Amino acid sequence: MITLLVLAGLCAFGSSHPLDDVNMLSTHAGKCEPGWTYGHKYCYSTSQQFVTWQQAQDTCVQSKSVLAVVKNDQQGNDVLETQKTSGSFAYWIGVKYNNGQLEFTDGKPSTYTNWAKDKNKPTDQKRCVHAHKLLFGSPLASWKAASCDGKHPFTCQKRALELGDILLTYKTPLPNNAGITMVCDIDYPIGYEANFDVEWYVNGALVKTERVKGKDVRESYLKSGHSWDTNENEFKAGDTLQCKVKACFGSTCTPQGTQESSNDYYVGMKVEPANYFELDECSQKTIKLKLVPTVPIRCTNDALTNCNDFETEYGVLVPVQHDSRVVVSDCTADFMQNEDAAASAVDLEVVPVCDNVNGNGDEFQVIFGKITTTHPFWKGYQPEPVTIKLTDKNTEIKQCYCNDDPHCKTLDGIAYDYHGVGTYVMYRNNRGNNEVQIKTYRCGGASCTCATAVRYDGVAVVMDACSGAMNYFVRPNGATLPKGMHVQRNCGGHNCRMMVITPNGNKVTFNKNGRWHQLYVDAHMEPGKCKTEAAGKYCGGLCGKFNGNSGDDFYTSYGQKTSNLQTFGNSWRINDGDSYFNKDPAPVPDIPDGGNHPLPEKTCKCYTNPPDCEYNFNDFYDPLNAGAEDITEELEKGNNVRRRSVSTLLATYKRQTRSTISHQEATTLCDNAIFKSDVGKACKAVKGFTTEMNKMKANCIFDLKTSGEHSVIASTVDLLIEGCQFEAIAEPSNRVNGKPPIQILGNICEGDCNGHGQCHNGKCTCDTGFTSQDCSISLTEAPTLDKDTLGLTLCDKSNSTCESETIFGSGFLKDLTCHLTVEENIIAGSGKKESKTVSGHQTGVLQIKCQLPAVITPAQIEIAVSNDGILKSTNSAKVMIYNSQCQQCDVKTGKCILKANTCNIGGECYNADAKNPLNDKQKCKPNDSQTSWTEGSPFELLGCFKDKKSDRALSKLLKNLRPFINWKNISLTIKECAKIAQAKNYKYFAIQYFGECWSDDDVDASKNYKKYGPSTETWGNKDKTKYLVGKSHTNCVYKYT
């Protein structure tokens, strides 16, 4: 009859919620008091009186119960069942809104809610909650907030006299000892005599049995031991615990019947959210882990003598056989002390490494080291490892290139020749955030590669050798490269390799060998469609449509397939003014699913000591690149390579108009270079590479006959080395015991040692008389400087640091000596020349950089170069350093004059009437003198006097200026000391030990400065009556006049 009545109500309101499947409550004799109804371990008593929320709660408390709490669907249905016969659709439940959160009448928190709709949630005016038998369009027993003064029927709730859930947790507050106490919390009504038999299990083995009894005793305890001593106590860090309980009602009964078990509780560190992950290695997605202690970490008085020294640190390690597969955000971390175990959690990110090895999926572990601490419970504990599986579809990497004049190959392996001249898109990825551009110039009857630009997001790295020299810079100028983007330089002998590694795991190599250039793009295949296609920018480029299908490589920039190479190549041409060689990249908008995932601030390889931490999650195994320099920071500071005229350098590399090499001679030379050389013999062992070597031989013969230049051979060897190494590393079938084939790679050396050495373990051992990494430099020959670039160059110190000079030539070693002849302060000085040697460094095949000393302008520096510090180049480069604010220099005559209405004093420029910073009574008066102040000094030398360290004549050290001394102009040091003393209102000051600036209060200084008598231990400029400084324990004392 009740069911029918409710259904009638449901139909009246248009609802279709059935009540047939609601479980009816029963009395369950012995578990509930008379008048109470049993339901799923709780007893219920219903009142049909209409009262306020607080009146309902007070009534329940009087009967040792609470206003019925609802913390799950089952309880909601049970309470609903008790209210079936009440005359109201709404009834109070034990939930109330207070201070911004829900409170439950049983005093225990819960995350369960059952709001009918968002608008029914509580507010400050509607703080109490009632449930509904029926609320239109909502589930049964849905909640709705209401005024606490409203009146509704209610149900009281108390625990039934039976075992509820057994909860295993740790005891709080923590005891004042070093151990951990675990609690078996028995859910049984308080206030009733009961007996409980508790069994404790550690790792499945019974370790303790205990009888717990009484009206209010509902807990059993298990104490910990030490992690390194399994016998000392009952459990240690790393164990899994469980308790089991039987109960009976009464003071003398024996527990029998069903035994209830607690949850399993692992005591240690748990890894959240899981211990197993699958990842695509180049997805740029991180695994965000949290190491969470399951029990508190706290220093206690009996754990350590001094709790301030307490640390709990763990290490992170990837086994060495997988050390190149993932990196982590940190190699060590400390767990902070806290009574709340979860508050001590430590975050860790694991990033899969994108490499140049194709694979079929690897599974390995990130291992956490044993915790280092003196705490007796945690000492030696080791958290469980995390297992990572790189997905079976390991992101494939392939190589595309356009070399020499140029011979090209797509990423899907189609070889072709294209002789267009201009700027082209070489590669554009599917995500749209990585692009490579290539520039070619006319060389004889063909075109030759000479430059590339690599963009990632809104920054481009340009490597331009079209002038003959290798220039490299960043667009926009001074921009910071995206995190994970690195630029490397490896120059030596006649070869220079520049490499750009992008955050998505691609690598661009630009190789210069003499006048020949090779461009390689190592790219990973990206899933999905081209993200920029909708905006009219198709993916691909001269590298083709990279999808594993060589049959559709030749797609144009407007999305049409073609078999005509001219149509294909021409479509990817771009206006030079719009290229990254001449224009800054536009900002790249966020692209959905573009792989733009938040990444950690740093990544670490933890197997080194100290750990190798930087922002890098790419790893390219490249034996030829072992000695490369990372020049990322150098580029970010702005390119400091001054560019020379294109015409003079390119003139050196014009092709001969007629070849004198026969087909037979070209065939012999190319066959010897490719198949009979040491590197060729090694590369024939690379599976499937012989076909590629035959193509290289055919191209070599063509280029050699066409150009007539034997330098083609060296360029061909470079192509062989680059392609052979890539295939040997990338192709899994070439591996030996899972590692790249050392027996092949060990016989691949730079330039195949140029016929002047032997290749051993990837390094050249040069013959006597030869050196450099490719054995191309003869020790009996001095470097040769390019005579077309040796004219005087000017460097304006007002807008440049003038700290180095780039010089062009050939025959350079990587590290060399620059021989300088310096003539400074040409206008005001004597013009005396001074010889110096400084370090130099090769920055390209045809260019070096020499460091320049600090000079007083204007100064002329002649630069010769040697590889051994002795045998210098026969000619020299010249640079004039000047300051255009007051100096004017003629590049033809090499002479400088001072500009009108300016002064050049102490190496600084001043405009007419400018005041002396140290004496406002002195001014720049060009008509009187352009090289000195026109009035006297603001201070006078009183003399030089002895001093004692134990009782100084002047007691206040204002500043140690010794690191800043200009030994050619000691007056600058004295003036700086004067300036400091004046700022502190001291009239007296002294210089001791060449650059220590001392002073004292005027009264004390005037009385004490000469109390130890005069001293001759002084040093100064020619005019020793004006500017003197004291040596050790001597004050040269000055006074403001």
From TrEMBL:
Stored SUPFAM superfamilies: C-type lectin-like (SSF56436)
UniProt protein name: Toxin candidate TRINITY_DN31332_c0_g1_i1.p1
Keywords: Signal
Gene3D superfamilies on file: Laminin (2.10.25.10), Mannose-Binding Protein A, subunit A (3.10.100.10)
Upper lineage: Eukaryota, Metazoa, Cnidaria, Anthozoa, Ceriantharia
Domain VWFD, residue spans: 398-580
Domain C-type lectin intervals: 39-157
InterPro entries assigned to the protein according to its UniProt record, in alphabetical order: C-type_lectin-like (IPR001304), C-type_lectin-like/link_sf (IPR016186), C-type_lectin/snaclec_domain (IPR050111), CTDL_fold (IPR016187), EGF (IPR000742), Helical_Vwde (IPR058727), VWF_type-D (IPR001846)
Signal peptide extent: 1-16
Superkingdom of this protein's organism: Eukaryota
